[in-house]
Design goal:
By secondary structure, the chain is of the alpha/beta class. It is built from 14 helices and 17 strands. It binds ligand 7TS.
């Protein structure tokens, strides 16, 4: 049995009140809350083993290094990568994509093309545009249909002999659409093109197996997985990471340094210049253990029940417009009520204790394609309840009548 109430007791923040109302936290797409065991893991490093990693012979430094490398192995196992050499720690999804854009981007030539989709987060658009300031890179964009699904015919038609990469989100942070990543990767590979998958919105909602997907790069953030902020992962196939030049220079990423010539460290350290966020990396291990102990598939099932229930109730509200209705979508609901401004709806919901996100959700090209400026977005995680869905609906009805 999925015991959501016992699970909630692991998250002290869920007991908070906002404007005298019990907090209903529905901004999980932006970041998930953190269970006590993860906070304790952070505390444990600060109280017991804090020392810089990979630098000292002393006991604390070795223990800190062991903790970090144990997380790397845990991440490898979690996404079924072949080797820990393929697991690079970054600050988050954004830095992981910037790393690939900068470093893999170094291997591209003027006139090369990259395929993106219209539903990408700015983190998977702007780094490629910045690369375009160094070289003439052409971005080809896959459109969507009215349900918020990618147009796969258009996708297939975008490949040519200048195509050098596909960069696509696994799950849309606005529409909730789960893209047919495995099929898209197979198509790209049949054209000899590698694929970067932005897994920020998928990793805590479905089982991800990078070998089964055959992804070339897969990126995600710990803070969206009930883990600490400041940590992310770049998974990359070894042969690609080996071809790519370092991203940043500094300590840890070198073999030998002289003023005439510097050699670089082996993978994964070649891409980890400077002191990493070793405290949070250590605690990220606990977050993965926590999520796995509940079961990603069971969490997804729970979230889907909430999604179906809430969507049905929302549709009873006059003027409700939901953006993203793809079958099998993740538990993200972007909506507007009539012509009311998303900001007004979000602000009034906040006054009733309901935390939702408003605005363009860092997906302005998608907003343009939808012909709107922004939406209100409610999104669910493992600890949300049917009672919270009811509280959200009741608040929404109230807001809707207040706005007339
Ligand atoms: N890619 C996707 C699909 C995302 O949803 C996000 C964050 C990112 C990349 C960037 O992740 P970061 O951890 O590096 O910041 N999405 C959101 C959101 O939807 N609302 O706030 C952050």
């Amino acid at each position: 049995m999925y015991d959501v109430n016992s699970l909630r007791s692991d998250f002290p923040i869920l007991e908070r009140q906002v404007y005298g109302h019990p907090l209903v936290y529905l901004d999980n797409t932006a970041t998930t809350q953190t269970p006590r065991c993860v906070v304790e893991a952070i505390e444990n490093v600060y109280y017991n083993t804090k020392a810089n990693v990979h630098r000292g012979v002393h006991t604390l430094s070795q223990e800190a290094t062991d903790l970090q490398e144990a997380t790397r192995e845990r991440v490898r196992e979690f996404i079924n990568a072949k080797s820990t050499e393929e697991i690079i720690f970054t600050r988050g999804t954004t830095e992981a994509i910037n790393l690939v854009a900068s470093s893999y981007g170094d291997l591209l030539e003027n006139g090369d093309e990259i395929i993106l989709t219209v539903m990408e987060h700015h983190a998977n658009i702007v780094p490629w545009q910045l690369l375009g300031r160094r070289k003439r890179i052409i971005l080809r964009i896959v459109p969507i249909n009215e349900k918020g699904e990618l147009d796969m015919v258009a996708y297939r038609s975008l490949f040519n002999d200048r195509t050098k990469l596909v960069a696509v989100c696994h799950v849309s942070n606005v529409l909730g659409t789960v893209n047919p990543i495995k099929e898209m990767i197979a198509e790209a590979h049949s054209n000899g093109v590698p694929v970067l998958v932005d897994g920020a919105q998928a990793i805590s909602h479905m089982k991800v197996d990078v070998q089964d997907l055959n992804a070339d790069f897969y990126v995600f953030s710990s803070h969206k997985m009930y883990g600490p902020s400041g940590v992310g992962v770049l998974y990359g196939k070894k042969y690609l990471l080996e071809m790519m030049p370092p991203y940043q220079g500094g300590g840890e990423m070198i073999g030998q340094v002289s003023f005439d010539h510097t050699t670089f460290a082996a993978l994964p350290f070649k891409f980890e210049a400077g002191t990493p966020d070793f405290v949070d990396i250590a605690a990220f291990h606990t977050a993965i253990d926590y999520m796995t102990s509940i079961g990603v598939e069971r969490i997804a099932e729970h979230e889907h029940e909430l999604l179906t229930y809430t969507t049905e109730k929302m549709m009873e509200i006059p003027g409700m417009r939901i953006f993203g209705t793809a079958p099998g979508k993740c538990a993200v609901i972007s909506f507007l009520i009539g012509n009311e401004h998303h900001y007004d709806i979000g602000m009034l919901l906040d006054k009733l204790g309901v935390a939702v996100r408003t605005g363009h959700h860092c997906a302005q090209p998608l907003m343009s394609a939808l012909g709107i400026e922004g939406t209100v977005r409610a999104s669910f995680a493992m600890y949300n309840t049917k009672a919270e869905a009811d509280a959200f609906i009741a608040a929404l009805r109230r807001v809707s009548s207040m706005l007339g």
